[in-house]
């Protein structure tokens, strides 16, 4: 008897589709996956209905890769459904792992988002006050759409997650490694971050590093980067010191500072706080006024520090009124 | 029940903790609202310690180190000095009053000053009211 095919599902919550494209970017490898596995659900690339998943026995799926954050009740519903039906549930990509770019919405409120998108937008007909409601009556029929949550959650906030694959999106070579590890049953202990390194990005970055002392920070277009020298030493914001490696140092290799998509380095509790510590320490001044002025050249610090992980931070969202 | 501010104090071993100790041995009275954590240097205070304190129910955090130029490790307190303004900006962006976190230089001989700082900060926190982060995050897990 032929070996039983692996049963897998891929799903997107609040996501851009980039993680699904990254899976396709494994090129011919995805065809091998197609041969070795039955893809039971993959909204972006294959057919498969929610009812089909609901009809499965619990644990019938061997592996579910969930990308995207949890923004609405549909995301949570499918997360819980896939959890029940899967032996392994993997938070795939920055959004599922840490909240990702959608997680930056935690700096505003549901009310403000609705006001911008449905009421204040320039393309909206004047006087139109239509905003989505989970339940609507139309011609005597009741229509339901998913409820939009007050804030964004990581996958692990709503269900138990077995493994985390970081990246925005995860590197195709790392996706391959993870899938092969699943097939061979060579996975590390549960709750581990897989498809990444146990070091910081700086450890893997080939740029020349000397003493860091900066008098101002530069936006990318304000300076011609020296391709050999550490970007932070040039005053270019780079999340390398606080960030987990595993991406192949792609951004610094392209003269761009690391954005931190692989999430906090091992042992780091709060990615942004650790980065705050790192970037403050390179300021070349002992005068509080000058320090403040140098920090003034660093715009939107919270957006830099938690670009991919605000819901995973200690404070998780904006507080107060 | 009336509100009593919970204040966490991170004090450097060499100046500020000794200063607080002097306040004690000199029998100077100051509010019991502060919970002191001794660290070797103000540079040891990772910003995540402060966020964690607020996230776990502290109403304010006091960071104390040696006066500039007096650091036992010569430069440690300058690191704390550079982190502090950025941390205040971060707290503002989080919607948390940055007055909840304060950096003060207290030397080993400034027992009275330590007591005054704690008294002043306790009163300010009393006026600000409780920090709601802990309850808000707990509510988030129940009400989506």
Which short descriptors sum up this protein?
heterodimer, A: 321 residues, alpha/beta, Rossmann fold, 3 domains, five-stranded parallel sheet, two-stranded antiparallel sheet, 13 helices, 9 strands, 31% helix, B: 144 residues, four-stranded parallel sheet, 44% helix, 16% strand, globular
Largest sheet of chain A: 5 strands, parallel
Largest contact between protein chains?
A-B, 40 and 32 residues
Number of strands of chain A: 9
As for the number of domains of chain B, it is: 1
* The CATH architecture of the largest domain in chain A: 3-Layer(aba) Sandwich
Architecture overview:
The complex is a heterodimer of chains A (321) and B (144). Chain A is α/β, with parallel strands linked by helices. Chain A has three domains: 6-101 and 152-184, 3-Layer(aba) Sandwich (Rossmann fold); 109-149, no CATH class; 201-312, no CATH class. Chain A has helices at 18-24, 28-36, 50-54, 73-85, 94-98, 110-119, 155-158, 172-184, 201-204, 250-253, 271-281, 288-295, 301-305; strands at 6-12, 37-41, 61-67, 70-72, 86-92, 135-138, 141-144, 148-153, 163-165. A five-stranded parallel sheet of chain A has the order 2-1-3-5-9, sandwiched between helices. A two-stranded antiparallel sheet of chain A has the order 4-8. By secondary structure, chain B is of the alpha/beta class. Chain B has one domain (12-137). Helices cover 44% and strands 16% of the residues of chain B. Chain B has five helices and four strands; from the N terminus they run βαβαβαβαα. Chain B has a four-stranded parallel sheet with strand order 2-1-3-4, with helices on both faces. In chain B, helix 1 crosses helix 4 (111-128). Chain B is globular. The two termini of chain B are 29 Å apart. The mean pLDDT of chain B is 96. The chains are: A alpha/beta (321), B alpha/beta (144). The A-B interface holds A 73, 76, 107, 147, 149-151, 153, 157, 268-270, 272-274, 276-277, 279-281, 283, 285-286, 288, 291-292, 295, 298, 301-302, 305, 313-321 and B 46-48, 50-52, 54-55, 68, 78-79, 81-83, 85-87, 89-90, 93-97, 132-133, 136-137, 140-141, 143-144.
